[in-house]
Amino acid sequence: MTVPVDEQVVFRPWRVRWLAWIGAIVLFGVMVVVAVLLREVPTGVHFRLADQVALVLIGLLMALGMLLLAMPRVIADANGVRVRNVLVTKEFGWDDVLEVGFPDGAPWARLELPDDEYLPMLAVQAVDKARAVTAIRALRALHAAHAGSDH
User: Fold this and answer.
1) Sorting pLDDT into bands at 50, 70 and 90, what band is 6?
2) How high is the pLDDT of residue 1?
3) Which residue from 41, 114, 135, 137 could staple onto 124, CB 3.0 to 4.6 Å apart?
4) Could you tell me what percentage of the chain is helix, strand and coil, using 3-state DSSP and rounding each to the nearest 5?
């Protein structure tokens, strides 16, 4: 596969994104079922409509929290790379990146930065196998093509 060094590339986790969506849907469904059934089951506690609504809302919040795992994204082009990990987005020009690395045994790729710093890229995960290899090759090609240039 030829890596486009003049185009924008976008990478997102694949397996974790699917699992996050499935988990969120199942979790929310379970909370709705529990909210409905608790009023019918004689437990000695009186569940009211407000309790049921609260359980559904808690389930919704928990499901949304689980969907945060689907948020990571890496966007790279000739100008640099933008990494969004869950809630925080950071952007670097290729001149600021020393290396695009994927250490042996690491769960995700990372950007090696000056002063012995690194930024994990949660969007490029080892569990995605071939997709992760494609992503790391594309990012390394972009870095090699544009680091040290005046873009």
Assistant:
1) confident
2) 53
3) 135
4) 45, 25, 30
Encode pLDDT of 56-104 as tens digits.
999 999 999 999 999 999 999 999 999 999 999 999 999 999 999 999 9
Question: Considering the entire predicted model, what is its pTM?
Answer: 0.83
3-state per-residue secondary structure call for 55-102: HHHHHHHHHHHHHHHHCCEEEEECCEEEEEECCEEEEEEHHHCCEEEC
Fold adopted by 9-13+72-146: PH-domain like (2.30.29)
- Alpha-carbon span 139 to 4, nearest angstrom: 10
User: Which of 26, 2, 8 has the alpha carbon at shortest distance from 81?
Assistant: 8
The CA-atom distances, in angstroms, between 16 and each of 21, 59, 77, 143, 151 are 9, 20, 24, 26, 34
**DSSP code, position 150:** -
**Strand (E) or helix (H) holding 108:** strand 108-113
Determine what percent of the chain is predicted with pLDDT higher than 90. Answer: 79
Domain extent listing, the chain: 9-13+72-146, 15-69
